[in-house]
Amino acid sequence: MTQTTVGRSTPGAALPLPRIPRPRGLQQLVPPPLLAPVPPVPDVTVVPPALTPRRGVSRPAVALDTALSLALGATAAALGVLAAPVALTAALAWPLLLLATGHYRHVGLGESRLTPPLRILGTGARAAVLALALAPWFVTADAVALAALVAVLSVASTVPSLAGIGRRRPRVVLVGRPRDVREALAELRTADNHEVVAACLTRSSKIPLGDLPTYLGFEATSAVAAHHRADALVVLPGARLTHAQVRRLHWSLAGVGADLYLGTGLLDVEPQRTRVVSTAGVDLLHVTSPVLHGPRRLLKDVVERSLALVVLVMTLPLLALLCVAIRRETPGPALFRQERVGLDGVPFTMFKLRSMGNDAEDERSELVAHNEGDGILFKIRIDPRITPLGRQLRRYSLDELPQLWNVVRGDMSLVGPRPALPSEVARYDIDPRRRLVVKPGVTGLWQVSGRSDLSWEESVRLDLRYVDNWSLRLDVSILARTVQAVLGHRGAY
């Protein structure tokens, strides 16, 4: 790295400004001497430069797409669909087009597995429209055939993308206070779509972070990112970096091929609810309010009540058979009625198929000592009150079919938070009480994410995420995932 020396200045003379050298190659990866490791890692005193730059493309994906496109182009030429020069030119141009649109770059932090295939299909759609637009300059049949070839190429390229060929998890470096880093590490380790490779702490601490490489200071975070071949550097809230420091950090990370992410401090806010705005030169993150009322909520209510009525009528013969089987197994009514708390804290009577003995509520007090749930939930994995038939009903969630009548009546929704007992609501603090601003649901994020296997904190967090980020698309996604959850029997006891 080129070094610049600033000499002494004479009175009245302008101070000479240091010349900032333009980074070349890997020279920018040399760390400054301020970087020091956090004990107990005394042997790491300097972060060596990375041997190769991080930014690049996935060569296996490029090679596979090139082979597929050439094979399809040769097939189109052999069948006489397109002239050989046109077909082979299109086949060779297709990987270059994907390269230009950034498809072959490594997946960014927060991108889902569907992001690359959707990017391919979008690129293919635009290319096909362009091919049709060239029809006045070519034979119309050739333009249509070229558009069809582009469509086939885009579909073929989505197959290796969905299979994960050439895809790897983004490598992440965390920057922030020791406590914030520990909490973020616990959150990030619950997902498998990224890998935390190092942490830079703003101050020394004895908080254990396991075997994660840890460094003190943020002056050389770009060198840390380069050394650990990181794709992203996440600055957590509380790091207290100034605007100038963030800007300079962004510059230095660009030289090593790592992306900069700034933590907002928000919890479970979907991206579609946020946008960056600028006022008076200050950049702000605007978070829209949750949709609790309005036309979309009315549409949800009408569609769900109509759909619940149709499904209820279709399942009446099955319900009748199950009611007879329940009455034959144990004495007592086949339907179980229980008071639950609904919208705005208004109680209602919820219906279920009885899966326990008729005296189950009276026997609950005797099983309190065996409660396996945390928080305010009461649950026992092997509950002696459940009948053999009731265990099968719970396994396939058939005991919840009568709740469709609650949906038709308007007490519940098909999708919503978990319906709570009055005894549970009486112990709610501020966060769980937020669940009561919408109707409870027959299914929800709590069901498709584990049901009874979830802790109390996890259950509340999932319900709050649903309430604050509700959309019709989210409801459709949960209904689709409910089928998989029911067939998988996870947390059904």
Automatic annotation (TrEMBL):
Keyword Zinc-finger: no
Annotated membrane topology: Multi-pass membrane protein
Pfam families attached to this UniProt entry: Bac_transf
Intracellular or extracellular location(s): Membrane
Keywords annotated in UniProt: Membrane, Transferase, Transmembrane, Transmembrane helix
Residues of the Bacterial sugar transferase domain: 300-487
Xref: InterPro entries: Bact_transf, EPS_sugar_tfrase
Transmembrane segments: 70-99, 145-165, 306-327
Extent of Low complexity compositional bias: 11-22
Keyword Membrane applies: yes
GO cellular-component term (any): membrane
Record-level Gene Ontology MF annotations: phosphotransferase activity, for other substituted phosphate groups
Region described as Disordered: 1-22
Annotated protein name in UniProt: Exopolysaccharide biosynthesis polyprenyl glycosylphosphotransferase
